[in-house]
Amino acid sequence: MPFGRLIRxxxxxxxxxxxxxxxxxxxxxxxxxxxxxxxxxxxxxDVSAWTDLVTDASHRLALRNSIILGIATSVIATSLAxxxxxxxxxxxxxxxxxxxxxxFSAVALPPVALGTGxxxxxxxxxxxxxxxxxxxxHLVPAIGYLTLMFLGVFTRWDHRxxxxxxxxxxxxxxRWRRVLxxxxxxxxxxxxxxxxxxxxxxxxxxxxxGGGAVRTLPLDVLAMLQAGQDxxxxxxALALAIPALVVLSAARVAxxxxxxxxx
Amino acid sequence: xxxxxxxxxxxxxxxxxxLLVAPLVAPLLxxxxxxxPPPAAATIAGMPWDSVVAxxxxxxxVWRMWRGDPSVNAFIDRWVAPRLLAQYGITLQAVNxxxxxxxxxxxxxxxxxxxxxxxxxxxxxxxxxxxxRARSLLGGPWSQVLPAAELVDRESPIVSRDFEQDPAGYExxxxxxxxxxxxxxxxxxxxxxxxxxxxxxxxxHPGRFTHDQGFTGITLLKSWLYALNGGVGxxxxxxxxxxxxxxRTRLFALLDSLEPSLWRQGTQYPSDVAAMHxxxxxxxxxxxxxxxxxxxxxxxxxxVIPATSRALVLRDGTIANAHYVGxxxxxxxxAGAMVVANFLLxxxxxxxxxxxxxxADGTVLRLxxxxxxxxxxxxxxxxxxxxxxxxxxxxxxxxxxxxxxHERLQDDWRRLVR
Amino acid sequence: MSACxxxxxxxxxxxxxxxxxxxxxxxxxxxxxxxSATATATATAxxxxxxxxxxxGILLGLPIVAGVxxxxxxxxxxxxxxxxxxxxxxxxxxxxLRAVVLSLWIATLGTAGATAGAxxxxxxxxxxxxxxRLARTIGSLPLPVPNVAAAVAILLLLTQSGxxxxxxxxxxxxxxxxxxxxxxxxPIGVGIIVAVxxxxxxxxxxxxxxxxxxxxxxxTAAARTLGxxxxxxxxxxxLPLLLRGMAPSIVAVFVFVLGSLELPxxxxxxxxxxxxxxxxxxxxxxxxxxxxxxxxxxxIATGMALLAAVVHEWLRDDA
Lengths: 263, 418, 319
Fold this sequence. Notes:
The structure holds 3 protein chains of 3 kinds.
Chain A: H1 2-30, H2 48-55, H3 57-89, H4 93-108, H5 111-124, H6 131-155, H7 160-167, H8 172-200, H9 204-210, H10 217-226, H11 230-254
Chain B: H1 4-30, H2 41-45, H3 49-56, E1 60-65, H4 70-88, E2 91-96, H5 99-111, E3 121-124, H6 126-134, H7 157-160, E4 171-178, E5 180-184, H8 195-204, H9 215-228, H10 241-258, H11 273-281, E6 287-290, H12 295-301, E7 309-312, E8 318-326, H13 334-345, H14 347-354, H15 372-382, H16 390-396, E9 397-398, H17 403-417
Chain C: H1 31-76, H2 86-92, H3 94-124, H4 130-139, H5 147-158, H6 163-170, H7 190-215, H8 218-225, H9 230-259, H10 262-267, H11 275-284, H12 288-315
């Protein structure tokens, strides 16, 4: 139906504009010095914000912290959430419900409320203002998300493959290596990506538990915005968004299943 | 059919997880065995200066300060830090932290029994200093033993009293600033220069003026509080509740009458100075402001506001205050912190800080106590044509009063006006 | 299929089922294997049942208890510098009520907008044509963008002197920034709502699409053969089914937006303050009374979140 095609084209155009315009404005702002109203385009292109991002020691430190926290969170959270999700999926319905409720609460609790308590805990452990303390805080929502994810994965899991392998004489470790892990490649890749992104984007918990002493890239972006440095804030925001996009795409590519239907 | 192998598998997995979690938990348990607390600032202050410098050599000092301005950051990271390393062997690490954040963090640290903190030096003033002192979160007294402290202008009411509080050796002065409005000479060639004229201007140009909700906005309101109530003398000498309430009534009456002519009809206020600069630069409002009178120059150089921006000091007086550095009670490296504080007071460091291209932050030194060639250098910097003239600043400077006024004004403004 | 949330709340339990790779044939399980296993089943059953609860308790329960517990202790004045009586002051404070209302308003409208957009995209673009895949790819772009970055982008776009306003000036719709509508720092949070929709629509689209592929088109096909028009099939079958399946995710998005700090930090008005910002402001105030109030408000926010968690679990139907 031509009318239907028109609607679809219109919606795609509107969607594209909606999605792309904010990102385009970020790019322009990151390259603009002295760009004021009502100029539609920057007066000149200036890459100083981008070079500063790379050369400034405190920005490099923030970037390094974000990367370390992201990788640590993703690996640790995945390793802990996978067995948790699996053992919960194999348990009774009541246990599955309780674990899901706990996991969701960890994610749903406003970080401002959660962070206050975690701050005291971390300080009592002598980890106040340290990277490890902030890591512990990031792990809470990360493990929550990933537990929910693995709970879903293992609830729909077909355990017969493993049982068959067992009856055919495969040892435990071999079953894991040759049957379970290959099938889990995709969920694990997604879990690693998700865990990384939870930590990478985190603001409230880092602020509260790190007490301002632990700098990460999102905190730097906020600081630059609050200091009126829009050009640098935009560059920082893009520096924050681009790796996130890369990580997510990499996870999908790494575990591409030919039977998949949805991109 | 689910077989028992899965249930066994569950326990096995539990064991594997325990093995994974153990390395995480072990260092936490180990950290429970706390090392002895580091020597307090007061103790270090009792030692001869040479031994303090020797103690500090090869150490790291973590300095919690406001890191929001790239010029200030560049001064600290690229001028101060390398010289500290070269001259004293101290590695300076400037990290973010200011105001309420610091008080909050140190309070929680004390509650948690953290006798060794992370920061050794803090950039503070005013109500932050007051709150830290009231809760005994600062180490000291120590600032009186710094060799460079002799050069400090102790007679200036701006430096010798921090919001009317006696530093008493618990903080060492670093710089001075004075509140100024910022206007665009191209847009507003004849700005109003008194509060009365400003009120007339605001009513004539509705929607073109506002102030922020933060420290700077409240400071502006405080200077109006003085101006409307017979000057700063009315509020000097500690917090007087009656004087405050009477003064506040007049101030809020003025604000009420101005409200319909403010930006967004006074229903919204920008959250901080950065938002003000953004509105000002993009032509939404015609005045911005800053606690540092020279921000008009430095921000224009950074391209944040138009190049035609100028500073305006209201003739009724604007508030001048000093900012300081302090040492927290649980500082891991008090000796290093003291060496840094001393370095910041040297004429060399004070001059560099005052250059318009660097930070344009005022000095706390007594210029007539300096040798003639230093005096000449300071004069040439202070008299830079881009900056507000020194005698203008002096003529209209008003000191800060008790921090309780600031707290009450901020609180009441938030609850009654905002 | 990655139907999982990346940077916000999400019900990851609603992913589509794992499809078995086609080359694994189904085998019959020999009876002997199961018989020998049941003997040890009951012995290890009880022990293994404790494992997930214990793990969940340590990894998730402990931090939650720490977080909530400290807020309770702070509100009661047992720890920290809070003054007692916070609860009465908070309940009587009109600013708190306005904060709760604003936060609920933003969360409701943002979630509703994102849901509506997601349903529209899922219904229009569920095929395999080039246009469908293009729409799905573009729609998923904001997914990994962190909230902070999205907030900055929307700020630069929508302020009265932002890029849209400049565009309006260039096409002579308005002459000065004040004529552009106040979309940011406004009392109904339009800017924040737009940012919420921008960030959460991709996630909900993903959930909707995975639900569609899961449920298949057999129901709508059957309806069509019985004479229903496409619109009837869509409105009476597809949409209700999608909504029902998306319900847990919608609740998740709602509660996440309710508690999120980043978007209001950049885009919120000064009056009324959204809830997370109000908590921050009172927490960092220097007087003890405000501290106590901050803890009480934090508990209110926590209560709302826990309520949403229970609703979410109740809506999840695959346990």
